[in-house]
Design brief:
861 residues, 54% helix, alpha+beta, single chain
Length: 861
């Protein structure tokens, strides 16, 4: 990361210097954060004080404290202790909640206070917390009067919960955040709360849900902006992050149910399989018919419950119960990286939850320690509501994964899935075979008495989590030590292999040959260059073709039978003709139509010799940085922006992604996501890079930093090589923060140009302007229009409202560039419709129906 000091002169100063600065470190950012959250610190201190005064610092709250200060139907409604609505927000229930309350106050409430200020945070904490507790208590009271199951079961609860106000304030603050973090925090917070509501069912979770909803609405009131309530579109990367977060959060649910063991929630089935005190086989045998008992004789309700509990005991069964959790976490990791296999894995796990929902419900009914009649007091409507609740979460996850499927299309290399399937199937066959053989050999020692068919069915059950099939016949227990060990071991071992194989499959981003090709391509780029747009050849989606002598390369991608290259051939000067011919022969052998896209003028004679057609597809704008002076009237607008930035305390940093602190990385992601969210149109690719392309170690970033240390704009620069040295840079990624200084991009690009001048670079490319035509020289007459030029003019005017190509071209003209036409060369004019569709798909590879509608609306305005 470079850091220099300097100044830029006005019109009288002939020396222009880059206004460099530095980024805040993570420690500095954290220190500044703490100084700006006095209320959050006060709440954390208050929780410690109230815990010491009421005794909850050392243990769970006493009956006296609960009946005086806690909220609930008994105190708040029946006892008319209205103050409990407020006191419940500032007293922790026990030491565990104290720790979480203090951390949440410092972090979550601190974030809220940092975003919307101290006074708004105080209002949000008190209002949303009070609404959450008051409305939640009222709903419990009304529901208990009506005989509703959950309300009746929790009506006696007394709640102390500081998290209700903290969650409500955080949700309120999302209205003051940028779209990136607004969406992330809302999605993850609501997902977490819903998981606890569905898997735990405690009163405090319901209060938090009400407080979160109140905060969501209060945020729009405080900002006086109803648009904060609506969802905005997100980038591919952000969609992957959100979907992965939701899947990961839902995976936590079974752990919550296991820990809390509450029969008040539809998802708590199976938590009763793991008794506090393990059952003894001898005692169960004595109760259910002795050693000679058959499965039919042991099928009474009480014996079935004891057998289910007994069959689920053991460390292996305990591990097996967490398999769905681990699979969902692995799937979430893969979804975060856009893996297609991860999407199918998450769908499969949730489908299994649906498939086994009925038997899992039977497990709870059979094994839960509840009073007689507890499970039969519901009317039909109540049962329907809870059945829907059981099915809603997995169905919702499956629907989400189907709707967002276009974001998860990264596949493993050829052969990787076959190897994965071979390992998984082979492991299952071996483990199942070993247990089956051992079971048949010791079938006489099973209890209740088992047949060979029973052992076969039990073999398959050993690979299924016990809370899915614990009460499904046959329930037989192996008596031999070896068979008992295998019964505990085969399931966990199989799933451990499956998980390891899944991670390995989703970690494979390409074959060893592809990795070697990438390294080889970069070596040729460094040596031979590839033009000012050549580094785009390294981007994902391109395939490298190498000449017979291995000294030249062409980057291309095949779409609908058209092989579209990325800019110029990567070869030594004078070898262009040979490389083009060899690549064309390679495409012909594969029945592809070769298309050289964005090639520079020096290659057009080669295509003329071949008899190919070529047409302009845009203009590249080049700034010569050697001896650059920002003087004179042509540079007036740029110089004004540069001087204004320096006057306002703006600085720049020339760096790379890996050198940035975490706080700055988060700012870049937020700025980029804001830019995407503001556009209903699909993101373009191919010759336009995004966030992933920023992370290449060879790519440099030029950042504009405001006087407060915050990031205001970011640009990325691709290296241009010649003879192993970097001789120039090409701009790619450009984003500015909302509320940034007017002229921030002119300031940033001018600063980059001055930096390049100082470091000896020869050229700065502002990249190509698609469908643009360079301005005519004085006295020059325009060429006669042709069918193709008329078509290009039509496309330029049509796409302008959507993507602003002409506006971007005019912006680049401020930097007094040289213009160089970039062209598309193709062998067969009859293939133009196919070529056009292929290039369109290259730029817009994944367009959702909503994006297509938005694009059409924009184009027809």
């Amino acid at each position: 990361m470079t850091e220099t000091t300097g100044r830029v002169g006005d019109a009288e100063n002939t020396e222009d210097l880059e206004p460099s600065g530095r980024l805040r470190s993570t420690a500095e950012a954290l220190g500044g954060f703490i100084r700006r959250v006095p209320f959050s610190i006060a709440v954390a201190v208050l929780l410690v004080v109230t815990a010491l005064v009421t005794g909850t610092f050392f243990g769970a709250t006493s009956d006296e404290t609960a009946t005086t200060w806690a909220a609930g139907v008994i105190t708040t409604v029946d006892g008319r202790q209205w103050w409990t609505v407020a006191t419940a927000l500032v007293i922790p229930f026990d030491p565990f909640q104290l720790v979480f309350g203090v951390l949440a106050a410092l972090v979550l409430l601190g974030v809220a206070e940092r975003r919307m200020g101290t006074w708004r945070t105080i209002v949000a904490f008190l209002v949303t917390g009070a609404i959450g507790v008051a409305v939640g208590t009222l709903l419990q009271w009304v529901g208990s009067l009506a005989g509703e199951w959950w309300a009746t079961g929790t009506a006696a609860d007394l709640t102390l919960d500081p998290l209700a106000g903290i969650v409500g304030a955080l949700m309120t603050a999302t209205a003051f955040m940028g779209r990136l973090w607004r969406r992330r925090i809302r999605v993850v917070t609501i997902a977490f709360i819903l998981v606890f509501v569905l898997y735990d069912g405690d009163s405090s979770n319901a209060y938090r849900l009400v407080a979160a909803i109140a905060g969501y609405l209060l945020g729009a009131v405080l900002t006086r902006d109803a648009s904060t309530l609506s969802a905005k579109r997100s980038s591919h990367r952000e969609t992957r992050t959100l979907v992965a977060a939701v899947v990961a959060v839902t995976a936590v649910g079974p752990i919550v149910a296991l820990v809390n063991r509450s029969e008040l929630t539809p998802f708590a089935f199976g938590s009763y399989l793991f008794a506090d005190e393990p059952l003894e086989l001898a005692a169960v045998m004595a109760t259910c018919g002795g050693e000679a008992a058959t499965a039919a004789a042991a099928a009474s309700e009480s014996c079935t419950a004891q057998l289910a509990l007994l069959s689920a005991q053991g460390f292996g069964m305990f591990l097996l119960s967490f398999v769905p959790v681990l699979l969902l976490l692995v799937a979430a990791w893969g979804l975060r990286h856009g893996r297609r296999f991860a999407r199918w894995l998450a769908i499969a796990v949730n489908a299994a939850i649906l498939l086994f929902a009925r038997t899992a419900y039977d497990v709870t009914v059979t094994t839960a320690d509840v009073d007689d009649g507890t499970w039969t007091v519901f009317d039909l409507g109540e049962l329907v509501v809870w059945a829907v609740a059981v099915l809603a979460l997995p169905i919702g996850i499956i629907v989400m994964l189907v709707v967002t499927r276009r974001h998860f299309q990264i596949r493993a290399p050829k052969g990787a899935f076959a190897r994965f399937a071979g390992v998984v199937v082979g492991t299952f066959v071996v483990l199942a075979g070993v247990y089956l053989v051992a079971g048949l050999a010791t079938v006489g020692e099973y209890w209740p008495a088992a047949t060979g068919w029973d052992v076969l069915l039990d073999t398959f059950k050993r690979f299924v989590p016990p809370h899915f099939l614990a009460v499904v016949d046959p329930i037989v227990l192996p008596g031999h030590d070896v068979t008992s060990f295998l019964a505990q071991a085969v399931g966990p071992v199989f799933w451990a292999v499956f998980i390891a194989a899944s991670i390995r499959l989703m970690s494979r981003t390409g074959s060893a040959a592809k990795t070697a090709d990438d390294a080889r391509l970069r070596e040729l780029l460094h040596r031979n260059g590839g033009g000012t747009l050549g580094f785009m050849a390294t981007w994902p989606g391109n395939v490298a073709w190498f000449s017979d002598d291995g000294d030249s390369a062409v980057a291309y991608r095949v779409i609908n039978g058209v092989a579209i290259t990325m800019s110029d051939p990567i070869c030594a000067a004078g070898n262009g003709g040979r490389v083009v011919r060899e690549f064309a022969a390679f495409c012909d052998a594969n029945s592809w139509v070769p298309v050289f896209y964005s090639v520079h003028p020096q290659y057009l004679p080669v295509f003329d010799e071949l008899g190919w057609q070529h047409m302009s597809v845009g203009e590249e704008t080049l700034v010569r940085t050697t001896g650059l002076e920002l003087a004179g009237k042509p540079w007036q607008k740029v110089r004004q922006a540069l001087n204004r930035g320096i006057k306002e305390g703006m600085t720049t940093v020339w760096t790379s992604w890996d050198e940035l602190p975490l706080a700055t990385l988060a700012e870049i992601e937020a700025i980029s996501e804001e830019w995407v969210a503001e556009k209903e149109l699909p993101e373009m690719g191919f010759t336009l890079g995004g966030m992933e392309e920023l992370k290449d170690p060879e790519v440099r970033l030029m950042l504009a930093i405001g006087p407060d240390g915050r990031l205001q704009a970011v640009t990325s620069w691709l290296p241009v090589h010649r003879d192993g040295s970097v001789i120039g840079w090409t701009i790619d990624f450009m984003r500015r923060a909302d509320g940034s200084m007017n002229g921030i991009m002119e300031f940033l690009i001018a600063s980059a140009a001055l930096h390049m001048k100082d470091t000896g670079a020869e050229v700065l490319s502002l990249s190509g302007a698609p469908l643009a035509t360079k301005p005519l020289e004085p006295g020059e007459t325009p060429p006669e229009p042709t069918v193709m030029t008329r078509l290009l003019d039509f496309l330029a005017s049509t796409l302008e409202p959507a993507y602003g190509f002409s506006s971007l071209f005019r912006f680049k003209a401020k930097f007094n560039p040289d213009y160089e036409t970039i062209s598309m060369a193709y062998p067969d004019p009859l293939a133009l419709p196919t070529i056009g569709l292929a290039i369109g798909k290259a730029y817009l590879p994944e367009v959702s129906p909503a994006e297509a509608v938005a694009l059409v609306k924009t184009l027809t305005k």
